[in-house]
Amino acid sequence: MCQKFTPEQLKNMDMETKDGVIFQMQDRLDKLEHDYENLIEQIRLANQQRFGRHTEKLGEITGQISFFNEAEANCSEDAPEPTIEETVCLELKPVRRAKKKGQKEEDLKDFPQEEISHDVPEEELIKTFGESNYKSMPDEVYWQLRFEPAKWIAEKHIVKVYVGTDGLHQDEFLRGDHPSTLFRGSIATPSLEAAIINAKYVNSNPLDRIARDFQTNGLQLSKQTMSNWTIRTAERYFQPVYNWMKQRQLEAHVNQCDETTVEVIHDGRPAGSKSYMWVHLTGELSPGPKIVVYEYQKTRHSSHPKEYYKDFKGILMTDGLEQYHKLARELEGVTNANCMAHARRHFANAIKAIGKGNEKAIKSSIAYKALVRIGAIYNLEGALKELTAEERLKERQASIKPLVEEYFTWVREICSDQTVLPKGETAKGLNYSLNQEEYLKVFLTDGEVPIDDSASERALRNFTVGRKNWVTINTVRGAQASAVIYSITETARANSLNVYYYIRYLLTELMKRKDKDGNIDEAMLESIMPWSKELPDECYSKRRQ
Fold first, then answer.
1. Whose CA is closest to 433, among 458, 417, 457, 409?
2. Across the chain, what does the average pLDDT equal?
């Protein structure tokens, strides 16, 4: 606390000492004001994150469309030119959009169909019109969609057995082919295990909820049994697939990486210790197969990505974590690129903290001006997604690079006048931009490098939704199995597969490809990987009986 002076002490104090006290008070008031502003910003941001929309789009967080993208936001090439009548009478009579004929039939065409006729009895026709005084008109057709619960079929496999009664093979036995099984003595089938994996790893249902759903349909299957099946499936069948995915992923010229926390209860550390689920994926703009690989690690140490990418040669898109910069410094042939969305996020948070009701304060803020500049960069970049890497690089150099250079020049000017609160979200965005400038500009040198690492965050989203439902993972073995299974399900989703049908097909094929020792040759896997063009049609089907 500050030293307090009595009126008598102040009266007898010389001017130089008084000036020192006043300067001290000014410094303390400045610090208190900064702390107060930072605290208010944190409270407003916390409330917005808890109760508001989670968006970083400038038009949505400010409550209006940005001046720089108003035309693009409202433009539609398919919109017909209005007639004079529509233009003049718009206020009097709103224009109704005509329904597209046959749209419902088109939407339902891939579902199994059942015709149900609603006829008029002949007696009623004769009674109404008289005999032979009527004829049929075109039928009226109405569409409805019926839902039926899951169907279970108990497969009774009968293996025929024969024995020789005479001749050279007397008393020798001959049996029919024994059906392939996932696990010896188990009722589990590829379809049943695929249903469990789809429910837990795609739809994020905890095993308790899956067990209750099965029980509703008459199947008593404990979460312990399902957990055992799932871990054994990952270890016995999916591990070779996972290894092959990692090998193919590291062949890409551009990769992306991110990580998120997970709590593993029995990992040999005190309760509440943080573990990490890392995600590695081929570049969002890379021409090769779309591959997503999860990896469980106990810590966030730089040794983990260093080990994973030790044989990688190319560009790694990440956030601004120092572990990744260290990786690029220590591994020859690895270049680190950083995420522009992380800079934008701090400015978006600053705007959210101001609140939509204070438009004047928003538009005069440095955060708003930063978002307008970054938004202009993103608008141009968004139009280049369908181009080749060479064409994209050419366009970036011509139109985006000047905007990027102007942005960083502006950031340096803002930082030099020291008018921004040093600990606020705006300062964090400015400092991130300056500290990561070298890495944020990498996308301007290579057309395969995305502007940000949002693809990694999207790849982690399904895992984080599941984590919210099941909260923790019990063992390290379970965490590693989850990493393997999430890798396969998320890669399947990235390649537009129906995950249930793909997992069912994959398990069926893997059972066939195991040798007598239970091993699977990774060289035989390419044709059944999620990106393969040889997969059966059902793996792409969105609807089946």
1. 409
2. 84
